[in-house]
UniProtKB/TrEMBL annotation:
Localization in the cell: Mitochondrion
Gene source species: Kwoniella europaea PYCC6329
Cellular component per GO, a single term: mitochondrion
Biased composition, class Low complexity, residue ranges: 53-68
Transmembrane segments: none
Name listed for the protein in its UniProt record: CDP-diacylglycerol--glycerol-3-phosphate 3-phosphatidyltransferase
PANTHER family listed in its UniProt record: CDP-DIACYLGLYCEROL--GLYCEROL-3-PHOSPHATE 3-PHOSPHATIDYLTRANSFERASE, MITOCHONDRIAL, CDP-DIACYLGLYCEROL--SERINE O-PHOSPHATIDYLTRANSFERASE
Record has Electron transport as a keyword: no
Length: 585
C-alpha cells in the first residue's frame, strides 16, 4: 500500500461514533454504493416541485430499491439552481440537515457563550481549528481542562497556524503566556494521551526567504485559516478566531449545527489528514525522536526559566518520508482522494426524508494546488447568469457579498462585473479595519483597501455597472462602520430579486466560512467554507436577518468618498499595492 493510501486510510478512521450511527467514512460504509455517483438519487434541492430519492427495500434477500416521490418546497424555482446542486454534488462531499437543526448566531458574545456551553457538555471529542487562540483566553482553556478532567473518554485535538501560534507576544507579562503554543502546553503535559496540538506551516515560505523574512511578516506566505469548532456531534463554522476581540467587538458570521455527526466526522477526518503535514507540540520529546525532525519551541529571551517543561518543549514533524517544506504535491494527491472518497458516499447521507437544507464543504489551498472554492463559486455565478436568461416572473436573483477586507480575488471581480445580477458589496470602512491605527507597514493596509475599492468602483462605472437607485440594478458599494467595533464578516447570499412576500424574498443560498474571498485567501491561505442551499422558511428568515443587520451599520460609498480628504491614499500605500502586496492582504 502506498504512503498516500495509508494516510487516507488513517484519515478516514472515526472514533467515538454514536451507537447506531454509520458515519465511519466512505471506506467503511455498510451500505453498498454505486461505483459511479449519480446525483439524481440524492434529494438535493431540485428546482422542480418533485424529485426522486432511492430508498432501500430493507430486505436482505434482494438488492433492488424503490423510487419514492417526495414533495418538498424548493429554494428557487429556476432550473439553473437544480443544475447547480447536481454539479456541486458531482464534485464535492454533500451533507444535509433540517433548517431547525441549524442556528445562525448574531454576535461575538453569542459565539463565545455557545462555544463555552458546547465544551462544558463535551463527552467524547473536542475539535478546534483556528488561526490562533489569544494568549489571554485562560477561561476557554480552563473549560477544556475541566472537560478533560471530568470525562476520561474525552479526546481533544487542536490544529492551528504554526507562525501565528508560536509568535512571541511583545507585551507578555508573567500572568499571560508568551504565545498560543505556551498557552496550550500545560494541557498537552497534563493529558498527553488525550490532547493533541498540531501546528500547520505553509510550505511556501522556505529556503532563503525563510531566513530573511522578519517574523512579523512570515504570515504573508500563507497561513492555516480554516475555522471549525466541534464537540461530540455539534459543529460551529465561522470566520472568527478565538481571541478577546472576536468575543466582544469584532463582528463575524457564525453557524451552529446542533447535531450533525456526519459533518463532524468529516471535519475530524480532514483534521487528521492535515496532521500529516503539521508539527506536533510536545512538552518533552522522547529520546528516540531525531533532532532532525524537531524544532525547539521559541521562548522569550528574558525567560527566567532555563529548565522545566517550557524549555524542553518542542515541535515534532511526524514523518521522515515527507519533507516539511516540500509536501504540496503529496498533500494535493491525498486531499483529492479524501474529498472524492467522501463525495462517493453522498447518496448514503441523503436518505433522510426530512432534510430541507444541503451544504457542500469546499477546501481552498492555493499553495497546495487545491482550488475547490474558486471552481465552485464560478458554478454559482454561472447559475446566477442563467437565471437571467429566463423571462419567467421571479426567476432572477440578487446577490449580497461581504468581506472585511476589500481585496477581492481577480476572478471574483470579473464575475461580479460580468454578471447581470444586482449585487451589493459591503466591506469594512478604514476605521472598522482590524489594522486601523496599527504600527509599522500594517498601518497602510486600510489605505491599500481604499485604493483597491476605488479602482473597482471606477471599473464598475466604466463597464456600465454603476448602481442605479431608481432601477435597483448594478453594483452597489457600501462600507460597514460601528463605533468601537471592527468588521470581519465574509460571505455571499443569493435571494429572489423580486417577490411580493417577504418570506420568499429571503436568501436561499449562502457561502459561509473562513475565506475572505480575497486574493490572499484564494492563493496563499488554507480555507474551509460551505456552500449551503435551503428551503427552510426559518433558516431563510435568519439569513435575511443577517443581511439586514449588516446593512443597518453600512452606508453607500462612491467617487465623493474617494475624493474626501480623510480617504487620501499615501504614496507609500500606492507603492506597496504596485509592488503586488495586494496578494498578501
Amino acid at each position: 500500500m502506498s504512503r498516500p493510501q495509508k494516510l487516507l486510510r488513517e484519515a478516514l478512521k472515526v472514533t467515538s461514533t454514536p451507537r447506531g450511527v454509520s458515519i465511519a467514512g466512505p471506506s467503511r460504509l455498510a451500505i453498498a454504493l454505486p461505483s459511479r455517483f449519480n446525483p439524481s438519487i440524492c434529494p438535493i434541492h431540485h428546482g422542480h416541485r418533485h424529485y426522486a430519492t432511492s430508498v432501500s427495500s430493507g430486505s436482505s434477500s434482494t438488492s433492488s430499491s424503490t423510487s419514492t416521490i417526495i414533495q418538498k418546497p424548493q429554494p428557487h424555482q429556476h432550473p439553473a439552481f437544480e443544475s447547480l446542486s447536481q454539479e456541486l454534488s458531482s464534485t464535492q462531499p454533500c451533507f444535509g440537515a433540517r433548517g431547525d437543526e441549524i442556528e445562525l448566531l448574531t454576535s461575538p458574545q453569542m459565539f463565545y457563550g455557545r462555544l463555552i456551553e458546547m465544551i462544558k457538555r463535551a463527552k467524547r471529542r473536542v475539535l478546534i481549528s483556528t488561526l490562533y487562540i489569544g494568549t489571554e483566553e485562560g477561561e476557554l482553556v480552563e473549560s477544556i481542562r475541566q472537560a478533560l478532567t471530568n470525562n476520561p473518554q474525552l479526546r481533544t485535538v487542536f490544529i492551528l497556524d504554526y507562525h501565528r501560534s508560536t509568535r512571541l507576544s511583545r507585551n507578555s507579562s508573567s500572568s499571560v503566556p508568551p504565545s498560543t503554543a505556551h498557552l496550550l502546553l500545560p494541557l498537552v503535559e497534563a493529558f498527553p494521551d488525550r490532547c493533541e496540538v498540531w501546528l500547520y506551516r505553509s510550505p511556501k515560505l522556505r529556503g532563503l526567504l525563510e531566513k530573511i523574512v522578519p517574523e512579523r511578516y512570515d504570515e504573508g506566505w500563507g497561513t492555516w485559516h480554516g475555522k471549525w469548532y466541534g464537540v461530540d456531534d455539534e459543529v460551529l463554522i465561522s470566520g472568527a478566531n478565538l481571541a478577546s476581540s472576536y468575543f466582544t467587538n469584532r463582528q463575524d458570521r457564525y453557524i451552529h449545527f446542533k447535531s450533525n455527526p456526519s459533518l463532524l466526522s468529516y471535519l475530524s477526518s480532514l483534521t487528521r489528514l492535515f496532521t500529516q503535514y503539521s508539527y506536533l507540540l510536545h512538552h518533552s520529546p522522547p529520546a528516540h525522536i531525531s533532532p532532525t525532525y524537531t524544532v525547539p519551541l521559541p521562548n522569550p529571551s528574558s525567560s527566567p526559566s532555563s529548565s522545566g517543561s517550557t524549555s524542553r518543549a518542542s515541535l515534532i514533524w511526524p514523518s521522515a518520508s515527507i519533507h516539511p517544506r516540500r509536501f504540496s504535491t503529496h498533500a494535493l494527491a491525498t486531499l483529492t482522494a479524501f474529498q472524492n472518497s467522501w463525495r462517493s458516499s453522498n447518496a448514503n447521507r441523503s436518505r433522510r426524508v426530512d432534510i430541507d437544507t444541503w451544504f457542500w464543504p469546499v477546501i481552498q489551498s492555493g499553495v497546495l494546488g487545491l482550488k475547490e472554492e474558486e471552481k465552485n463559486l464560478v458554478k454559482v455565478w454561472n447559475a446566477i447568469k442563467k437565471s437571467y436568461e429566463s423571462d419567467e416572473e421571479g426567476s432572477k436573483v440578487r446577490v449580497d457579498l461581504t468581506s472585511g477586507y476589500f481585496g477581492l480575488y481577480k476572478e471574483y471581480k470579473k464575475l461580479v462585473l460580468d454578471s447581470p445580477a444586482s449585487t451589493q458589496i459591503i466591506a469594512a470602512s478604514p476605521k472598522a479595519n482590524g489594522f486601523y491605527g496599527s504600527k509599522g507597514f500594517s498601518r497602510l493596509i486600510p489605505e491599500g483597501y481604499t485604493l483597491l475599492e476605488s479602482r473597482f468602483h471606477r471599473e464598475a462605472v466604466r463597464r456600465g455597472r454603476a448602481w442605479d437607485e431608481e432601477k435597483n440594478v448594478g453594483v452597489r458599494l457600501r462600507e460597514w462602520e460601528k463605533e468601537g467595533w471592527t468588521y470581519h464578516s465574509k460571505g455571499i447570499w443569493l435571494s429572489p430579486s423580486s417577490s411580493s412576500s417577504s418570506s420568499t424574498s429571503n436568501p436561499f443560498l449562502t457561502f459561509i466560512g473562513s475565506s475572505n474571498l480575497s486574493t490572499r485567501s484564494l492563493t496563499l491561505d488554507t480555507e474551509l467554507s460551505l456552500i449551503m442551499m435551503t428551503s427552510s422558511p426559518t433558516l431563510r428568515k435568519s439569513l435575511g436577518q443577517e443581511v439586514k443587520t449588516i446593512n443597518r451599520d453600512s452606508k453607500d460609498v462612491g467617487e465623493d468618498t474617494w475624493n474626501s480628504e480623510d480617504r487620501k491614499v499615501s504614496w507609500l500605500a500606492w507603492v506597496l499595492v504596485a509592488l503586488g502586496v495586494e496578494g498578501m492582504l
